[in-house]
Design goal:
heterodimer, A: alpha+beta, seven-stranded mixed β-sheet, 21 helices, 26 strands, 25% strand, B: mainly alpha, 16 helices, 2% strand, globular
């Protein structure tokens, strides 16, 4: 039966659901790791923890206030570790919000010099009843915390914390323990306070109900020491990996009989670059390209957006009477899987292995090559390998420079000048510098400044200058994030990314200033209410983009979709939303005595709710 | 919640993925030339509340019954979500026990089903006024038994028929007479001017292959005109699809690396033949008098956004159809039009311009003739008459 296959294309789960607490529990703390990251996606996570109807990334991004509230509330309860230099360029609007995310996102580097690649969540959920055990959820994914739209896999495991230690989780705790050490030693931030207790809980978590018929689960981490993931030998192998290198394919092929027993699913353009002789050792298919292109039925014109192909990494092994599914972040590439002289791999990777008898898990054909999955596959037909033109070479060069620059410890120093904050960039240590090659330029700007140009940083990077002035910004625009732009002058190829600096001398009251800057208008306020009350989406009183000022009042009277009705409901259910609104109205009260942005009519309405809430609160 | 599964970031992404997966279920039935807006716009006007993924009309009752049942349980919203989901699975099992085989949503997927009947029918039951309050499924499940007592809060149509006794034990798709009456009433009330209502009020079955073959005196002028537009649009644009496939076959035959297209030469002949047949059938459509502005204006009244480039494409194709005396396969204007359209819609994936996507061509792309959901509507009309 095809639906039993974990790789059946219809077997899909929502990323945002991953962070939601099980019934009877509430969100406690979480550590996430990712290779690349974009701010918008990272922001969607705290929102979906805090708001019940918030699932759609685009909807969430339209409520800056909700973002603020949820990020604020969760900032010291989540830590996200990502590879340094891999935060995508952010637009200034989102960038301003990132002030509140400063401590949450931490950039790290792989000790082996490769990529910090693991995609992991480890979440602790606190029980609402004291008698229930704390629960831990771990997810091992192939998806980064970005807006990629690829074929990605996730393994999620839930378990309760017991007294006894579970040795199977050691690789995971090793990774979590190592994270604070992987930051830049010169500007190293303090590790999250909750990390030791989370690790201790993870050590004692026993997984319940393994998926895919598995009877055993184990984990492995590459790139921290010599004790990494190794593909075992067996009779039959299927490799799903978007990226491949010839030495790894050769190595993997060795333990398995004939070509028929070795299946490989990868990206066509990646396979084109592999020696045909090595390719010969596998039966190869690619994801049919129709499975990666999407055309909206209801939209028209050139709006088609693509799924960016296969991104899942999984290795299925038949070994005697057992089947193993290995999955996680490791591609079948040299940097990910082959140890260097030091005994560890260049990249840091995390892998999970599900293991069980074939009678429960099925064979590779049952588990992977279900009829529905096979429909998505096409036989690989080789094309000529891509030609390295000037632009591609330039990109490569810029990538190398990106790695050097993101390894520099940077200090962003603030000083008050009138009512603005003057920003100056410095190298935090004298012994590190980067000499830009001829024809390559580097520009830096504070990420909240919509100045595309940026300031030329070559003299600072090379050590000729000790300070680079980045101009002055209002208090609400001070963040530790820098927008970096590398330019290859001859080809005009550009590479842009976001890099974190250590913020020195950040003035008091910055967070409050950010909040006020964001609730600049009534529309934002109402959109937030809508999200809070769970009416965003179909039939919401703010359904259209033109909604906003005045609109809610009109719908207040029409009886079907109004603000009044969900507020009454919230009052009745005592679900806490009204407390939230109350707190917000208090906070929006400008101490300087300026008029609040909360609409007068809403304040009038609120007056009739306020005493009811206080009364209920008192009763508890 | 332990699982091993493909992952989507949000419902929007899931919808995209689902659309792609569906493409693989119905080989090559997709909208290659971007005609979906007009197709869906006309279908919404003619047969409101229907959609191509719906199966049987009794689901329009099953879904509210399930949600009502879940709402009556004393539970948190999260628990009610689980309950509703569970009830949907129980319904599938009850249908199978009731002897239904075809059209049971989740028949094969069982409990791993991701697209539940409630999400397939959620929009439709609102359009037809069975669900009276706007809101998503989560919003509905946030209302519990307390809210249901509140007489000012109307979630569902008040005349919703009672739940059959053994709904979750054994049930089938056959409507009871009062259920059929209710659905007919809903259609009459919420979709009064639609063709669906006009035909439903006839209380008879229809066997016609196409909506425009139906001849009923009581059809309004407005609906007659919409059907006429649909027939002409379906007919005229079918030629564009055939020519598109013919051009692909010609290109596939020319390519030296023709291994994957062994049948290209046969296909070329087939499509030439189809194009001739199509030409012959055009006469019935009296295209000289077709008012495209009226069509665009009608589609413009729906929620579908018809772009200028789509208008231009249809207009130009109609001109070519009307003028061309020579063979279309050598009509450079026609060829350029299709190329340009495909390029705009598909960029690097355009098969007329790029070889890699052509290699993966199955031999027939988007050839199905547009029926504007008549097949679904026709089945519903039959079910409304064929009561138990």
């Amino acid at each position: 039966m095809s639906a039993d296959s974990p790789f059946d294309p219809e077997n899909r789960e929502l990323y945002t659901a991953l962070v939601r607490a099980p019934d009877g529990y509430s969100f406690g703390h979480a550590i996430a790791t990712t290779y690349s990251l974009d701010f918008e996606t990272a922001l969607a996570i705290p929102i979906s923890i805090v708001f019940r109807d918030a699932e759609n990334r685009d909807e969430m991004m339209r409520s800056p206030l909700a973002l603020l509230q949820s990020v604020e509330r969760l900032a010291d309860r989540i830590a996200v570790y990502c590879d340094r230099g891999r935060i995508k360029e952010a637009n200034p609007n989102t960038a301003r919000l990132m002030a509140l995310y400063e401590k949450t996102i931490v950039e790290v580097a792989a000790p082996g010099g490769g990529a910090f690649h693991p995609k992991l969540w480890c979440i602790r959920f606190e029980p609402q009843k004291k008698s229930d055990p704390v629960r831990i959820r771990v997810a091992i994914l192939s998806r980064n915390l970005t807006n990629d739209r690829c074929w990605d896999l996730a393994l999620a495991l839930d378990g309760a914390v017991h007294d006894e230690e579970n040795n199977d989780n050691r690789a995971l705790t090793k990774l979590l323990r190592a994270l604070p050490r992987l930051t830049n030693p010169a500007t190293r931030p303090a590790p999250p306070k909750f990390l030791p207790s989370l690790i201790s809980d993870l050590e004692r978590t026993w997984w319940e109900g393994l998926p895919a018929g598995a009877t055993k689960v184990s984990f492995a981490v590459n790139g921290l020491d010599g004790d990494g993931w190794v593909l075992p030998h067996g009779e039959k192998l299927a490799v799903l990996s978007p990226f491949v290198t010839a030495p790894v394919l050769e190595r993997f092929a060795k333990g398995y009989g004939s070509r028929e027993n070795r299946q490989l699913i990868s990206r066509a353009e990646e396979l084109d670059g592999i020696d045909p002789e090595v390719r010969e050792r596998f039966s190869i298919s690619t994801l049919d390209e129709r499975a990666t292109e999407y055309e909206a039925e209801a939209t028209d014109g050139p709006k088609s957006s693509d799924l960016e192909g296969l991104h899942a990494k999984a290795y299925l092994v038949e070994r005697g009477s057992r089947l193993q599914i290995h999955l996680g972040s490791a591609n079948a590439t040299t940097a990910a899987t082959i140890p260097t002289k030091g005994g560890k791999t260049q990249n840091v990777e995390v892998m999970a292995t599900l293991d069980g008898p074939k009678t429960r898990m099925g064979t590779i054909d049952d588990a992977l090559f279900s009829e529905a999955f096979q429909r998505l596959l096409a036989i690989y037909t080789p094309s000529d390998p891509p030609i390295l033109d000037e632009a591609v070479k330039a990109e490569k060069k810029l990538e190398e420079i990106r790695a050097c620059i993101s390894a520099l410890p940077l200090d962003l120093c603030c000083s008050e000048v009138d009512d603005l904050i003057q920003l100056e960039l410095q190298l935090a240590t004298k012994d590190k510098r980067v000499l830009l090659p001829d024809g390559v330029r580097c520009f830096v700007r504070a990420i909240t400044i919509p100045n595309e140009q940026g300031y030329d940083a070559s003299r600072l990077l090379s050590g000729s200058d000790t300070v680079l002035a980045l101009g002055a910004v209002p208090l609400g625009d001070v963040t530790r994030w820098l927008g970096i732009r590398l330019l290859h002058e001859k080809t005009k190829v550009e590479l842009t990314f976001t890099l974190g600096a250590r913020l020195v001398g950040v003035p008091e009251g910055r967070d409050a200033a950010v909040l006020r800057a964001h609730i600049a208008n009534v529309g934002n306020f109402l959109r937030y209410l809508s999200l809070l009350l769970g009416t965003l989406g179909e039939g919401s009183f703010l359904e259209s983009d033109t909604g906003g000022e005045g609109q809610w009042l009109r719908s207040l009277g029409d009886g079907t979709t109004s603000l009044l009705e969900p507020m009454v409901r919230a009052l009745h259910l005592e679900s806490g939303e009204l407390d939230e609104i109350g707190r917000l109205i208090e906070r929006l009260d400008d101490p300087a005595g300026n008029e609040t942005i909360v609409p007068k009519d809403f304040l009038a309405l609120w007056k009739s709710f306020e005493p009811l809430i206080t009364r209920k609160r008192g009763r508890r | 919640m332990s699982y091993l599964a493909w992952i989507d970031f949000d419902p929007e992404e899931r919808r995209r993925a689902q659309t792609l997966i569906d493409l693989f279920k119905q080989p090559e039935a997709r909208d290659e030339l971007g005609l979906g807006t007009i197709r869906d716009g006309l279908a919404d006007l003619l047969f409101p509340g229907t959609s191509t993924i719906q199966t049987r009309i009794r689901y329009m009752l099953f879904v509210p019954w399930i949600y009502r049942e879940a709402q009556q349980r004393r539970a948190s919203q999260a628990e009610r979500t689980m309950i509703a989901r569970e009830l949907e699975f129980e319904l599938s099992e009850a249908l199978l026990r009731g002897g239904e085989r075809e059209d049971v949503i989740g028949r094969l997927a069982g409990r791993s089903l991701k697209r539940l009947p409630s999400s397939v029918y959620w929009a439709g039951i609102y359009t037809l006024g069975i669900r009276t309050l706007a809101g998503n499924q989560a919003t509905f499940l946030s209302y519990g038994s307390e809210s249901l007592k509140d007489h000012d809060l109307r979630l569902w149509c008040t005349s919703l028929p009672d739940v059959p006794e053994k709904l979750f034990e054994q049930v089938n798709f056959k409507l009871l007479p009062k259920e059929a009456d209710f659905l007919r009433d809903r259609i009459a009330a919420s979709a009064k001017t639609s063709l669906l209502n006009e035909l439903a009020s006839k209380q008879k079955k229809f066997s016609e292959d196409w909506a425009w073959q139906v001849h009923e005196d009581s059809v309004s002028d407005r609906n007659r005109s919409i059907i006429r537009h649909a027939e002409r649009f379906s007919g005229v644009m079918h030629g564009a699809s055939i020519l598109y496939n013919l051009l692909l076959a010609l290109r596939a035959a020319e390519r030296p690396n023709a291994k994957a297209h062994g049948e290209a030469a046969t296909l070329v002949e087939e499509y030439r033949q189809s194009l001739e047949t199509w030409r012959g059938e055009l006469k019935h459509l009296a295209l000289q008098s077709w008012d495209l502005d009226d069509l665009f204006q009608i589609v413009g009244t729906t929620s579908h956004n018809l772009t200028q480039s789509s208008r231009d494409f249809v207009r130009t194709w109609l001109e070519i159809t009307l003028q061309s005396n020579k063979s279309l396969e050598r009509d450079q204007e026609a060829i350029d039009l299709l190329r340009q359209r495909e390029q705009t819609l598909k960029r690097m994936k355009a098969r007329l311009l790029h070889d890699a996507p052509l290699e993966r061509w199955s031999g027939a792309s988007g050839l199905a003739r547009l029926d504007f959901r008549w097949a679904v509507a026709r089945r519903y009309l039959g079910e409304l008459v064929d009561v138990g």
